[in-house]
Fold this protein.
Amino acid sequence: MKNIKFFAFAIALSFTSPQLLADTVQEIKAVVEANMAYSNENLSQDSMRISASGSKEFFSSGGLLNTITRDSDASDFEYFEGSVKHIEVVVLVEGQAAIAHYYQEASMKPKGLPAVPNYRTRVTQAFVKEDGMWRVKAAHWSPLQGGAGTSQTVVK
């Protein structure tokens, strides 16, 4: 009898598991797109996209590993028009952790810095779920050949 219950549970789980993974994939894609929409609309990045304990990041401008916190992340722009495409998500732990890979393109001018008219980069971001919201825990931004990284090399 125990074996029958176990197999019934395993079969039920096999039917629901792909849907759960699909939900996490769709949630992460929506977060990536929402973060871009926020920057386009507000000429800034949403500091709440960062994990409460911060995010370790390599910037597309090069340099060493940076620690970004909600307080230190002050990327403001005179203009910003960006988009994301080809978002692929790898679910690490359903509902708790996932990796997003995508391409970002933009034309921007960070306040007080030179304009970047051809920003094209590959992005990898590690997301964790905190208090019911997906937050960035780590990221790596790598310019595409023929594109540019940002003019920003340090956080304010």
